[in-house]
Each structure stands twice: as C-alpha cells, then as structure tokens.
Amino acid sequence: MNQEKLERMQKMSAQVRIGGKGSARRKRKVVHRTATTDDKKLQSSLKKLTVNNIPGIEEVNMIRDDGTVVHFNNPKVQASLAANTFAITGHAETKQLTEMLPGILNQLGADSLSNLKKLAERLPTTQAPTATAGDDDDVPELVANFDEPSKGEGV
C-alpha cells in the first residue's frame, strides 16, 4: 500500500473516533439544530395552547424593575386568554426608560411611576442655563420695514 495513502487513512480514522486507539467509531454525525427548528417547535407548542393572533398592535414595551425597557416595534402578538399566555415575537431593543420618556408616560402604571420618581431622584440634577444679555444674539433685529416694497407691487 502507498505510504501517503496509509497516513491519510490514519488521519481520517482519528477524526471519527470518539476515544483513543481501539475505541469504536461513532455511528452518526451529530446535527445541530438551527433557529428555524426552534421556531417551529415554539409555534407548535403555541398552537396546542390555541393562541390567536392579535392584529393592530404597533409597539410593545416591557418595563423592567431596573429602569430598562424591552421595546418591540411592530411585533407579532399572540394570546391565549384561557392559558393566560401572551407570545410576542419580533425585533427587540433594550433601551433606558429615560430614552423613551415622552411617549411612554401614558403606558406607565402606578408602580412604574413610583419607580420613575426614584430614578429621577438618583439622577444628578442639572440646572438650565439662565438667559443673559449676550444670549439674544441668535435672532437679529429688524432693520427696515419689509412691507413697504410689497405694497407698491400690487398697483
């Protein structure tokens, strides 16, 4: 037998062995699951719970105790009221509560508002700059009357 071929065969047999020399070869190759199989299993489990799609939901915000918000934009929401189960799927972003504040105030409950107050107390207070005489440089003063030339054009 050719020496190169023998060395190649020995290297290949070392790859399929589980243990050391003299141990049995493995019978089959282990196939790892992909995310799509996990998604299919999740959907079949949800189907057993008889979930229904809830259309028309534009965003979902889950507020955690530490002041972070899990934000879903245009999610797929499924619910089973009998099993008290809600499934929310879609792209999730983790944001701070302070980033979402203007639009999220109507979604906060009483306990979240108290957490917001505690969060506001922990943040350092910054004072707004006071207006001085040099601050009104952004808006120039009117020099001439601009209505005068327009009155003459209509004639």
Report on this model:
The chain has 155 residues and is of the alpha+beta class. It has five helices and six strands; from the N terminus they run ααββββββααα. The protein has helices spanning 3-16, 35-48, 101-104, 110-122, 147-153; strands at 52-54, 59-63, 68-73, 76-80, 85-89, 92-96. The strands form two sheets. The chain has a three-stranded antiparallel beta sheet with strand order 1-4-5, with no helix packed on it. Strands 2-3-6 form a three-stranded antiparallel beta sheet, with no helix packed on it. Strand 4 (76-80) and strand 5 (85-89) form a beta hairpin. The longest helix is centred in the first third of the chain and has 14 residues, at 3-16. The model has no long low-confidence stretch (mean pLDDT 77).
What layout of secondary structure does this protein have?
Blueprint: H1 3-16, H2 35-48, E1 52-54, E2 59-63, E3 68-73, E4 76-80, E5 85-89, E6 92-96, H3 101-104, H4 110-122, H5 147-153
Antiparallel strand pairs: 1-4, 2-3, 3-6, 4-5
Task: Please name the defining characteristics of this protein.
single chain; 155 residues; alpha+beta; three-stranded antiparallel β-sheet; 5 helices; 34% helix
What is the gyration radius calculated from CA atoms?
Answer: 33 Å
Order of helices and strands: HHEEEEEEHHH
Mean pLDDT: 77
Kindly name the structural category. Answer: alpha+beta
Question: What is the number of helical segments per DSSP (H or I, 4+ residues)?
Answer: 5
Total number of beta strands: 6
Strand order of the largest sheet: 1-4-5
As a percent range, the share of strand residues is: 15-25%
Shape designation = elongated
Sketch the major β-sheet.
3 strands, antiparallel
Q: How far apart, in Å, are the first and last alpha carbons?
A: 111 Å
Low-confidence stretches: none
